[in-house]
Amino acid sequence: MRIIQLIDSLDAGGAERMAVNFANAISEKITFSGIVSTRKEGVLKQEIKQIKNYAFLGRKNKFDINAIFLASKYIKKNKIKIVHAHSSSYFFGVLIKIFNPKIQLIWHDHYGNRAKDNKQKWILKFCSFFFSKIFTVNDELRVWSLQHLNCKNVFFLPNFSDLKKTEERTILKGEAKKRIVCLANLKNPKNHSTLINGFITSEIYKQNWTLHLIGKDFKDTYSDNLKTIIKENGLENSIFIYNACQDIKYVLSQATIGVLASTYEGFPVTLLEYAQSKLTVLSTNVGFCSSLVTHNSNGLLFDPTNSEELSNHFIYLSNNPEICANFAIQFQKIVENNYSKEAIINKYLNLIN
């Protein structure tokens, strides 16, 4: 098989990370595994295993003829048979297929709010005529695609974590065994304000607990609001913003609790990375999160609109280190048994065949 992953950027987002994960994981199992970024490069470029099979198109607009020409040239040169388009890259994938009708176009939907977001659904519905298969990151999205799109080969394909050791650069502030980390870019729907307010209300910072926000800082109103909340509460030495980090495995190794507070999610790779790093998980209950985390068994779940509930969970975990440690062990077992890289890749290759 000769497959490329198509993605619009290589910024550190969930869909982007999975595009790189798939390209890397299948590189030793098939004849050719490549990855093409259409619009923007980013920090994840450094994680691509077969960099010689990577291409950047520099797309300037939706109908960029030069980008289409470069993609077609890449496809012909490398005899690509399957284009696996992630998230919003489906539109450019359709343009590629129009110019290269023999390829199979697979769309991978990572967007957890698809059913509620009416933006440009008619474009997606039209484009779905060109899809040979659709992969979704949870069953709700699978059902939605079957009901609303023009492709009936729709399959739920779970995400997997593939953290690699990199140069250890980022040193988390605060006291060891009392660090809480949130791995999410600073933007909606990641809901950092509720997270920060829950942490503040819990007052566990008085016991030297610290909160660490790891993710791209867009230096916008969303980010400014978070910094204002931190400053107004005098917690500059308890809540820290680090921007995007490349040494995620090392960052997570320094934490005890991993939290995710999003108001919607598909299948968050972040939770799998917390499991791989043996963290106790405190998670929003949206999307596939409640299928991954069993409340009060291998972690804790909360309503992302309820900062008081989150605050109570912070207090509970900080006061019960043994329960906290047991949650981490149980969650790691669940993820290893059900969402290992090997199992997901085997399923992926079987579905494509």
Automatic annotation (TrEMBL):
InterPro entries: Glyco_trans_1, Glyco_trans_4-like_N. Pfam families: Glyco_transf_4, Glycos_transf_1. Residues 13-163 form the Glycosyltransferase subfamily 4-like N-terminal domain. Residues 167-328 form the Glycosyl transferase family domain. GO terms for molecular function: glycosyltransferase activity. Keywords: Transferase. This is Glycosyltransferase involved in cell wall bisynthesis. It comes from Flavobacterium urocaniciphilum.
